């Protein structure tokens, strides 16, 4: 179980964004994709979601080539949460029901309702069930988007900077949900993050991207002073904490 | 969990209640339109004619004038409102509507061109019983239809341009409208008196213009488009979450946008071709419906259709009674009422 991509390349307007990158991401783990702006993190997420077609190489979900799957088949296996959520006057519950769309023939039935309401409760969003999206706070909105992705019952969860607009408390709450659901649902969670410390605290595997290529991939052991300094082009120091490692610029 | 699902069901019931309420309102409106008009017809005569099929002039008036008018208002109102709702959903712009995108103006230009080309010398078609040139009338419809499709084709091409944002599509619609209005004025300048009268008359949206065969065609197009729109209600909801999220939910966004715009145009084009321009219905009905049930297309689409039909029925009744015995075309009323109602919806929402 998991996602594998091989020799994956992507060009945009004649400019290479990703150059023949290969990697295998296993299920049950949170994989953090790290790198500076323009390193190709979001492009990788969009390729994995099937929004962009690769210029070369292929992506496999287990043994299935992503290219060969229909949009609906992909929707049943991959859920995507963008960085910014579009606001509307859809209520939180109606928005969550969208997550059942790939499974619906004509309309939602009681089993779909059970899935939606269970997740609402699990993510402590019940009190917001009938609130329109445009009346939610940033943290509530991000949790709702995450809930919608979970309602989709995917194997793979793609998150593009899910914490970038959140305060510290909400950043941690959202990340805790992501880690918990990844473990309990055996998801392959791929998440782009700007905050290296947040990644170190919550992710188990790290994909470091630099200049269109993978600089390093692996567990905590690859998060060395040398790799991180090279990744961000800045000298950093690593401080060992009780539960995590803290990175600060030198 | 029980309480959340209970609340959710109540909320859903509330929205269905609005839908039911306005659907019920169609009955008195329909009854009223069947009774209003130049010829005096009593309620008893109406029921006799509808149920028993009594002979006589009242029967003729009901079946040849009043019922086509009613069916026309129902079909035209519903199709314009649905087209507006869907255009607003796929273009993600609350100002999108058949009139703001220039589709109606394109049809008017096409009709003017058809009238000029056919070189008709007859007077106004619906005032003259023995309208001799059926081919000419078909030609006008054909031109009107072609130009409304051409307008949509241009809009669709523009939406496919990467740089075309939400606002630019509407601005392009405004520009296209101006172009078509200029073209119509140009044709009017060179038209003779009869043609000029026909062109001007054509632009007044009038429900009295369509006869049964045209209504059958409209009925088929409206019902097919309704079915298509309603079948895609969840796809339109998914678009509310953004194009990428919609795609991640299995929606082929490009195809949905293209097909929805085409079907919306077809529905609009048929209505505009047979009735002329009925301004603002396609813009206002979705906004009114949205204020009542929100943007969820499961409720918004049917309620818009019902409100569109109600607006047209109301406009027609008002048009007939306002300057009695002169009957104003419904299009004049919708345009008059459209502006204040739209401004109220726009600024009323802000202030609330």
Give a short synopsis of this structure.
The complex is a heterodimer of chains A (250) and B (352). With 250 residues, chain A is α/β, with parallel strands linked by helices.
Oligomeric form of this entry? heterodimer
CATH homologous superfamily label of chain A: P-loop containing nucleotide triphosphate hydrolases
Helix content estimate of chain A:
25-40%
Mean pLDDT of chain A: 90
Helix content of chain B: over 70%
* Large-scale geometry of chain B: globular
What about the largest sheet of chain A? 6 strands, mixed
Q: How many whole angstroms does the radius of gyration of chain B measure?
A: 21 Å
List unreliable stretches of 5+ residues of chain B: 127-133
Walk me through what this model shows:
The complex is a heterodimer of chains A (250) and B (352). Chain A is α/β, with parallel strands linked by helices and 250 residues long. Chain A has eight helices and twelve strands. Chain A has a single domain, classed as Rossmann fold (3-Layer(aba) Sandwich), CATH 3.40.50.300. In chain A, a hairpin with a 4-residue loop joins strand 11 and strand 12. In chain A, helix 5 runs parallel beside helix 6. The N and C termini of chain A lie far apart (40 Å). Chain B has one domain: Orthogonal Bundle (ABC transporter involved in vitamin B12 uptake, BtuC). The two termini of chain B are 32 Å apart. The interface between A and B is medium-sized, with 41 and 26 residues.
